[in-house]
Amino acid sequence: MAEIIPFRALHYDSRRVSGLEKVVTQPYDKISPAMQARYYGLSPYNLVRIIRGRPLPADHGQENVYARAARDFDAWIGQGVLAAEPQPALYPYHQRYAVPGGSASSLTRRGFVALCRLEGYAAGVVHRHEETLAGPKADRLELLKRTRAHFGQIFLLYSDPEGEVERLLEPGSGGKPWESVEDEYGTLHSVWRAADPGVIERVVEAMRPKKLVIADGHHRYETALAYRDWCRAQGLAGERAEYVMATFVRMETEGLTILATHRLVHGLARFDWEDFLERARQAFEVEPADVTNLRQRLAEAGRERTAIAAYAGAGRAALLRVPPGADLERLLPGVPPGLARLDVVALHRVLLERVLGIDREAVREEKNLRYVREFDAALGEVDRGDAQVALLMNPTPIEAVRDNAFAGRVLPQKSTDFYPKLLSGLLIYWLDNPSGI
Predict the structure, then answer these.
(1) Whole-angstrom Cα distance, residue 84 to residue 80?
(2) Could you tell me which of 295, 339, 301, 348 has the C-alpha nearest to residue 320?
(3) Same domain for 127 and 143?
(4) Which of 22, 86, 129, 236 has the fewest CB atoms within 10 Å, counting from its CB?
């Protein structure tokens, strides 16, 4: 069963910072070098200094980065830049946004922030849907050990067709937000406090039977699990390390948007477009396409069956579709049908591995592969010669994410891009809060 609890969030004191937009950030793994530099210039209290600090010339390895993050964090608390809430609460969190590349009309994704008891995947409470890499987890674990705080939220999905939990929290999110900030992508983030014990109790009970799916934050969730186990092994086990901060969003909400993440192939010793298409024909119907309407053609084809688009520059574009009635067991041996029907799985197992010869280890290490969200940006990288071919996809449906996660089937890394991201620094779970959880 899912166990959630309220907590006394640590947060920026508006009296000590000149604007919330100058101190909060996108999640650490979405911060590019250019974004990092901009964040550094916005405020001496920008959270990037803690979650993605830059090594100084005198530093010896990453050790000083983590030590400096811990010193800054402690100093900001001591200076009152960060303040703790006096009583435990749940925090309704709404994001109003426009879909990139879509219409100008806005959507609102509604969720709430709470602490979630950490459970291993085998317990059947929290389910993953993507593979993870070892490197980011080691980095996040060292930061967590030094700071003993969670600065970003795990994005967890739950099913609630009737919207019971949202209705329970609705009275607390009807007035002026406690915190409100617009990020660099034009998304308005609003947070309220729901501290009424009766409301909290009803929400906690309503969430108890839910199964949870990680939408975003697999690395951070597994880092929190590793930290919990490390604390237990060190004799430091306590209730606070048993929880992680999370935003809970119901799967059925109208504001849930998943974007595609396209693959850019580069650095191959040899790439020949005609040879690529010939090898792809062993598994796909291959049809030449006009790059000017490639996005539309891909979307239309994806409504009927597995479809992937390829672009190699100089007008070379093609639409690749799995034939109707194809023997998926023969095409993707050992792959369960629930996965075999997904575009991203066919792309990885067939196009990357068998056609282009990029094995799974190379994919994990991103040796010949980069990822990009924007369709036109992917085409542009090929046109500039920064990639040899772009492999373009439609978004993975939420139903596929849910069903495969509940069945214990894991999708390739970056199979989904839930938009918008949850801001880091709006709320902080401080394990050493002297006032309690």
Answers:
(1) 9
(2) 301
(3) yes
(4) 86
Torsion of CA 333, 339, 340, 343, to 10 degrees: -140
Q: At what angle do helices 134-147 and 63-78 cross, to 10 degrees?
A: 40
Q: How many CA within 13 A on the CB side of residue 141?
A: 15
Judge if 272 and 215 occupy the same domain.
Answer: no
Give the tens place of pLDDT for each residue, 127-139. Answer: 999 887 777 888 9
**Does residue 383 sit in the same domain as residue 240?**
no
Range(s) of the domain holding residue 371: 261-394
| 380 φ/ψ sector (left φ>0, alpha ψ -120 to 50, else beta) | alpha
Residues 332 and 350 sit within 8 Å (Cβ to Cβ): yes
* 331-379 per-position pLDDT tens digit: 888 889 889 889 999 999 999 999 999 988 888 888 899 999 999 999 9
> Are 216 and 324 within one domain?
no
For 198, the 3-state DSSP assignment is helix
Tokens encoding 384:
């500039």
Q: Is residue 331 part of a domain?
A: yes
Tens of pLDDT, residue by residue over 160-195, are 999 999 999 998 777 899 999 999 999 999 999 999
